[in-house]
Specification:
Elements: H1 3-13, E1 20-25, E2 29-34, H2 42-46, E3 53-57, E4 60-64, H3 69-78, H4 97-109, H5 113-131, H6 140-154, H7 156-168, H8 172-182, H9 185-191, E5 198-199, E6 202-203, H10 214-233, H11 239-280, H12 282-299, H13 306-316, H14 321-342, H15 346-360, H16 365-375, H17 377-396, H18 420-441, E7 464-467, E8 472-475, H19 483-486, E9 492-498, E10 502-504, E11 509-514, E12 520-525, E13 530-534, E14 547-549, E15 556-557, E16 562-566, H20 568-573, E17 580-584, E18 592-594, E19 599-601, E20 606-610
Antiparallel strand pairs: 1-2, 2-4, 3-4, 5-6, 7-20, 8-9, 8-19, 9-17, 10-16, 11-12, 11-15, 12-13, 13-17, 14-16, 18-20
């Protein structure tokens, strides 16, 4: 896989570098904050090699890559002027309150997840070593490793301060100084002394800030306004000293007097609420959460739950949300393995097996998007698998005791505690239930490759004949005045300069995508070829004017069935080129033979052979 090629294609299709406010990545996704999400070509992105899907959540444009996302991200940064530190720019898009909150949570927590995950796994392994007698709790080795594991959590406000400052557009080092002040040993001792505390006559509420989440987020949010306000009224020659000095002397006391205690109270109530829910409706709550967690993962908002998980463990010593995520992932793995067991298509069988293994390791997007959702019924089976494990966890009260790693088998140490054995049994239940449900429900298999088809040399029955969808003149893609098509970024194919305003199906298959703007349509043939018909260039801007679609997603079509009618003259009058690219978006699965490369063609005339 050429990561630099993929990253360049992605950057172009999200609207270019000038449309990118910032970009970060999580375990499976590139997460863009774009100035204008409308400039991103989602359909083209979803057809790009290495891209499994796209999603917009909390105003954030997410591109699902899978296991290779760190390498694609690195290639993106290396080949452009982008940096995830560019978050101090202000987006032109307006977000509602809920979207803004989700965007902040995702943007703040995603960069610090490696530190939390690494430290959490160390804590789990240390606990495992003590449990099996491999290490004494009184040894110096234990003390040092405990400090290594606890460090990221004890000083979590420090990590969050830096990350939040970048998100809010503040100085990250001044933010770290704010966090350092509220974590200072002397201040911690004073707040824990039980004495009445005041600052210039104002009462200071005693609170503990180590390992907390909400107080520092509120503090840095406040700081972003204070710092910018002071900066606006301070002469340039004095900014270096005056701005940070006044920011610290204002923000830290206000945090201790109002913001910090408020955050601590909110955190306590949040933990109490989650505990109450699972203590009084544990079975129903866990069935619902584990059974629907894959839907949460689809939106990318599972990262919005990270602060709740951390807060639960800090306040209560355990958490119920992460176990539900584990169960959902095991259900996805089980459903994918069921496809592996039942599919007759050797290529798809291999894909189901490898993505199933990946899901067991905690990365579910390849199995979810590449296998289970593609076949539909296995995805429902995966949800059933998660719910089945959720019922067992609800009865036995399984919890996680640290936050670390992915929700997969390598992160099992997060369960080390009183319910560890039950945790292992529940994971097996979800996996087995996912397999059983998928086998019982069944699915329509991807058609296997067969012997060579007669009458077309070099073309197998597992390949395809692509017919002309339009009457007009055949053109090479290199003649299309659009680099995405002419550069074969979306795939190989051909183009037609239409004489009549009607497009018919070039293959036998199923309509898989009908663009809202009516200018393009996607069809997956019965033999697996993914065909995109894109009428005109930049015609998406017409917003459906001069087009009429005659099919809907899910319709079965045969060669010659009418798909779209369009007014050629009106489109030209509006200033748009009507040349129509016909692209095979899963190009990498085929070799190509031109049946006719130029000249006039009629609908249903063979143009391209795939093998």
């Amino acid at each position: 896989m050429d990561y630099h090629k993929i990253s360049k294609e992605i950057l172009q299709l999200v609207g270019g570098e000038e449309n990118v406010q910032s970009v970060i990545h999580c375990m499976t996704r590139l997460r863009f904050n774009l100035y204008d999400n409308a400039k991103a070509d989602r359909n083209a992105l979803e057809q790009t090699e290495g891209v499994m899907g796209t999603n917009i959540s909390g105003g954030q444009f997410q591109i699902i890559i899978g296991n290779h996302v760190p390498k694609v991200y690195q290639a993106l940064i290396e080949s452009s002027g982008l940096s995830d530190e560019s978050a101090n720019k202000t987006s032109k898009q307006k977000k509602n309150m809920l979207s803004a909150v989700f965007d902040v949570i995702s943007g703040v927590f995603t960069p610090i997840l490696p530190a939390i995950a690494g430290a959490g796994m160390i804590k789990g392994l240390v606990a495992l070593a003590v449990t099996f007698g491999w290490m004494s709790e009184k040894s110096q080795t234990h003390s040092i490793l405990t400090a290594v594991g606890d460090g990221a959590f004890y000083f979590l406000p420090l990590l969050l301060a830096v990350s939040a400052a970048r998100k809010f557009g503040s100085n990250p080092y001044v933010a770290a100084a704010v966090a350092g002040a509220i974590l200072h040993p002397d201040l911690t001792a004073l707040l824990g002394s039980g004495k009445s505390i005041s600052f210039i006559g104002l009462p200071v509420t005693a609170a503990t800030y180590s390992s907390t989440v909400i107080p520092i987020l509120l503090a840095i949010w406040l700081m972003s306004y204070v710092e910018k306000g002071i900066d606006r009224i301070t002469p340039s020659s004095l900014k270096l000293i005056v701005v940070p000095m006044l920011t610290l002397v204002i923000v830290v006391p206000v945090t201790l007097i109002t913001v910090g205690p408020l955050g601590a109270i909110l955190g306590n109530y949040l933990s109490v609420g989650v505990n109450y829910l699972f203590n009084h409706a544990g079975i129903a709550a866990m069935i619902l959460l584990a059974g629907t967690f894959s839907l949460i993962i689809m939106t990318g908002m599972h990262y919005a739950l990270v602060p709740i998980m951390i807060n639960n463990i800090a306040q209560n010593g355990h958490d119920y949300i992460l176990p539900a995520m584990f169960l959902a992932n095991m259900g996805q793995a089980g459903a994918s393995f069921a496809v592996f067991l039942k599919s007759k298509n050797k290529t798809f069988k291999s894909l189901a097996f490898t993505t199933g293994i990946t899901a067991l390791m905690g990365i579910t997007e390849p199995a979810m998007y590449g296998v289970n959702m593609r076949l539909k019924k296995p995805f429902a089976a995966a949800l059933i698998g998660g719910a089945a494990g959720g019922a067992f966890y609800g009865v036995t009260g399984v919890a996680s005791y640290i936050v670390g790693g992915n929700a997969g088998l390598p992160s099992i140490p997060v369960f080390i505690g009183p319910t560890f054995l039950y945790a292992l049994i529940g994971l097996f239940i979800s996996f087995a239930a996912g397999i059983a449900a998928a086998l019982l429900i069944g699915f329509e298999d991807v058609q296997p490759e067969q012997a060579k088809a007669p009458g077309m040399p070099g073309v197998t029955a597992g390949g395809e004949i692509i017919h002309s969808p339009i009457k007009g003149e055949v053109k090479a893609l290199s003649e299309v005045n659009d680099s995405v098509f002419s550069g074969e970024i979306m795939g190989k194919g051909f183009a037609i300069l239409p004489e009549e305003g009607a497009a018919v199906s070039p293959v036998e298959g199923t309509v898989t995508a009908v663009f809202k703007t009516k200018h393009a349509i996607g069809i997956t043939s019965a033999r697996g070829a993914e065909v995109l018909i894109h009428i005109g260039l930049d015609t998406v801007r017409l917003d459906g004017r001069h087009f009429e679609v005659h099919v809907k997603e899910g319709d079965a079509v045969a060669p010659g069935d009418l798909l779209i009618t369009f007014d050629i003259e009106e489109i030209k009058a509006a200033g748009y080129d009507v040349i129509t690219p016909v692209i095979i978006t899963n190009t990498d699965q085929y070799s190509f033979t031109d049946v006719k490369k130029s000249g006039m063609v009629k609908p249903n005339e063979a143009l391209l052979a795939l093998s």
